[in-house]
Amino acid sequence: MVGAAAGMVFLLASGPARADIRVVSDGNDVSGPLDIRRATHGHSGAAFVTHTVSTFAPFSSSFLRGRNGITFQFDINNSARTFERFIIVGWVNGSLRALVANRTRIIGRAGVSRPNARTVRIRVRKSLINPNHYQWLVATFFGASGFDVAPNGSVRMHDLVGPTITQLKFPNPSTNGSASIPFPVSFRLNDTTGVRSWILQRRLAGASVWETISQGSGTGVKSRQIEGEQGLTYEFRVRATDRVGLTTTSATRQVTVPWDDGNAVFASAYAGTWFLSGFSTYFLGGAHALDATGTFTHVFNGTSVTLISGGLDGTATVTIDAEPPVVVTLNSAQFRRKVFERTGLAPGPHTIVIAQQSGFFPIDAFVFR
Q1: Could you tell me if 367 and 258 are in contact, meaning their C-beta atoms sit under 8 angstroms apart?
Q2: Phi, psi angle pair for 61, to nearest 5°
């Protein structure tokens, strides 16, 4: 029986797969007792899928023997001209059974039931077919040469997993991707059946409510420019739904917009000798470059601090509270680099002091958390 079913599948399988239709209707187009009226696919818990076939005329379970039978047929590797899995439904040793086979042998069993006198329903583990997706059709055969198939001239895709979301660019801090307040984010969407809709959501770190800031449809790379405010940390996620209704939610990504060196919160922080370095590649177009006796002193609240600098050659010491000074030497023309970071501080106020040692040491931006 396995070999006969495999041969029938090779001849019947054709046409493109449709993924957004769970019910297949078939006309009263075959003269015989197993003329298919409709077929469906669905889910039964996390580990099982279901398929049904209904005919125009009623039939007894014991009729499915000899030359009469039903086969559900599955393409598991996207080659719709050949099928690799079969569920063969027939009357064996006084009961209705459903055997799962590949093209050469039986590999398992499926549950089988009769919801009514015109319908057969099977329930099978995904692992016996394909846990991600497959294409399928159902065929009935009866008598010497009678048969019917649904769908006619095509197959149906049964998608079992939601879209794949790859988060490409969420620069943290935002200066890793932009010299201005708006910063780019991007992600890629893939799905076997296509993406019916997606949304990009944002919230402030620690908040509970998400805000949808962009939406669309389709697979591929999606890029957006995001507005922000200095000193705020944002959380982002993507939710995507495919054409069969399966939804995937991405991991949460954080992006902090730094405080610019020229922000009013630092109005009294600079002392000694310094000058403004006006390069467009600095955050917001400029930086305070310490020279000779230049210092920077600021009290912040949080548990970590990050200094963003670069673009000139210089050396400075960075001191947090009463900790030993850390020497930071710039030796790259790269702008907006993280040149110093201290984490794991006790919650509360802390003082950062930057003292120029040699050359020109630009202060571009800070991240306080």
Answers
A1: yes
A2: -60, -35
pTM recorded for the entire structure: 0.80
Distance (Å, whole) CA 294 – CA 348: 27
Q: Which residues of 143-157 are buried (b: 16+ CB within 10 A; e: fewer)?
A: eeebbbbbbeebbbb
DSSP letter for each residue of 323-352: SPPEEEEE----SSEEEEEE--PPSSEEEE
Q: How confident is the model at residue 244 (pLDDT cuts 50, 70, 90)?
A: confident
E strand residue ranges, 176-242: 183-190, 195-204, 211-216, 220-226, 233-242
Q: How far apart are the first and last CA of the chain?
A: 68
Two structure tokens written together for 22: 């769970």
Q: Mean pLDDT, to the nearest integer, of 235-262? A: 96
From residue 340, give the alpha-carbon distance in Å to each of 125, 337, 354: 54, 9, 11
Tell me the C-alpha distance between 26 and 148, whole Å: 9
Q: Which amino acid is at 57?
A: A
The span from the CA of 283 to the CA of 285, in Å, is 5
Using CB atoms within 10 Å of the CB of residue 192, give its burial: 0 to 12 exposed, 13 to 18 middle, 19+ buried.
Answer: buried
Query: Amino acid identity of 24?
Result: V
Question: Please, are residues 54 and 121 in contact by the beta-carbon 8 Å criterion?
Answer: no
Per-residue pLDDT at 15 exceeds 80: no
Q: Domains along the chain?
A: 2-159 (2.60.40), 164-256 (2.60.40.10), 259-368 (2.60.120.260)
User: Per residue in 89-142, pLDDT tens?
Assistant: 999 999 999 999 999 999 999 999 999 999 999 999 999 999 998 999 999 999
3-class secondary structure, 89: strand
C-alpha to C-alpha distance for 239 and 254, rounded to whole angstroms: 16
Shortest CA distance to 191 belongs to which of 220, 223, 154? 220
State whether the Cα torsion 288-291-294-299 is positive or negative. positive
Q: Is the pLDDT of residue 227 over 50?
A: yes
**What does the alpha-carbon distance between residue 292 and residue 35 come to, in Å, rounded to a whole number?**
93
Q: Does the pLDDT at position 78 exceed 50? A: yes
Residue 270, beta-bridge partner list: 296
